[in-house]
Amino acid sequence: MAAIVRAYALYMALNWEFDFTLHDMAHIRRWWVNLILSKMTHARKKRCTSAMSEAFKEETKQQEKVQNIGILMLPDAVLLEILLHVVLEEGDAALLNLSLVCSKFKSLVDTDSFRKRAHFCWLDSVTK
User: Fold this and answer.
1) Where are the domains of the chain?
2) Any idea what the Cα angle at residue 64 is, between residues 58 and 70, rounded to 5°?
3) Which pLDDT belongs to residue 41?
4) Burial of 26 (0-12, 13-18, 19+ CB in 10 A)
5) Distance from first CA to last CA of the chain, Å, rounded?
6) Using 50, 70 and 90 to split pLDDT, how confident is the model at 48?
7) For residue 61, what pLDDT is reported?
8) Fewest Cβ atoms nearer than 10 Å: which of 12, 14, 52, 53?
9) pLDDT (tens digit, 9 = 90+) per residue, 9-29?
10) Which Pfam families does the UniProt entry name for this protein (predicted)?
């Protein structure tokens, strides 16, 4: 949460448009740290640089763990609900697009039961 507040403060101070997302926070933090380090004296900069290097390594490890979980690790029932919402938002073209993403998506959206469910959910949303 503090990173977001700092990002808003930075953008306000520089009179920039708020065009960042939560995914940009790691890059903004690194930029902020590099900006601060560039203004430090040599001895203090060396100590801070090594400490920040370790912190960034740990952050990278944490991000890799999150990325390794992936959407394909979700149970099929959960994945079906997500894919159903995608099809309802994007229409019939989403069925083809999802089939091209990976074989697991293809096996889930190519079933008659999924297509019927998507069609009935769409009909339900149109009639209400």
Assistant:
1) 2-69, 71-127
2) 150
3) 66
4) middle
5) 38
6) low
7) 67
8) 14
9) 777 777 888 777 777 777 777
10) F-box
Mind giving me the DSSP string for the chain? -HHHHHHHHHHHHTT------GGGHHHHHHHHHHHHHHTS-HHHHHHHHHHHHHHHHHHHHHHHHHHHH-GGGS-HHHHHHHHHHHHHHH-THHHHHHHHH-HHHHHHHTSHHHHHHHHHHHHHHHH-
Identify the residue whose tokens are 């995608």: 86
| Residue 34 token pair | 């590099």
Render pLDDT for 71-114 as a digit per residue (tens, 0 to 9).
777 788 888 888 888 888 888 788 888 888 788 888 888 899 99
Amino acid at 122: W
Tokens of 92: 């019939």
**Token duo for residue 57:** 């390594």
